[in-house]
Hints:
With about 280 residues, this protein is α/β, with parallel strands linked by helices.
Amino acid sequence: MDLSVGGIHLEGPFISPHDGPRGAHGKAYVKAPNWELFQRWQEAADGRIRIITLSPEWPKAPDFIAKCAASGVTVSIGHTSASNEQILAAADAGARMSTHWGNGAHLMLPRHPNYLWEQLACDSLWTCVVADGFHLPDSVLKSAFRVKGERALIVSDAVYLCGMPPGEYETHVGGQVILTPEGRLHLAANPQLLAGSAQLLAWGIEHVTRSGLASLADAWDMASVRPATAMSLQASAGLQPGAPADLAIFRQNDDRIEIIKTYKQGRLVYDGAASEAN
């Protein structure tokens, strides 16, 4: 595996079968957690599956979560319609994160209690948010950042349509999707349901800083050092002696971030100037 890839995130199929929480995932493929099936996938992946997103609403989900955690796989709660009790049981069993919190949810929920509040209030859960300006309103991002503090993470949820022109596309997750001129990606059949993001991680850092939700330093940490800490990766040490030389050199023009070079373990893996020359 490339040095820049820390592992595989398996999002599904052990998620909620219900409309709304299931998101753009095909209902035909949703199923209850199955340890033997997961082990076959892990073997096929040569042990590279590092995160699995699942819904703890399934019977015996805590047992499955405990086995994943014991094997070194980070369990993240997402695409769920679980009860508060099931959320807490998942955390007790070893679940450590919430996948793109606030999304992959019913369009209408009880004021309280509900599975969003319960995850946000659970001190042991790291909270991942998609900060592209489309997945969550700024007021929700602000609330999540304030509540979770050092356990707030920015993720991209980017799909392969990043960099493509606006239009209608056929995808393996979601089927027919629409990419708007503004950069929002949604199901063609239901504009209220997003089909991932068409923006990379730097876009989220830009949005958070431009909106005044966090400083550039904090936003960058939420997208780099903090996720590494949540995953127990060596890069969590950041710019410290003895830490892996994982570096990004960038230029900030107004509120835009231009990645110039990136290094992984001291090795140059991306050179923007060379890419432009080619």
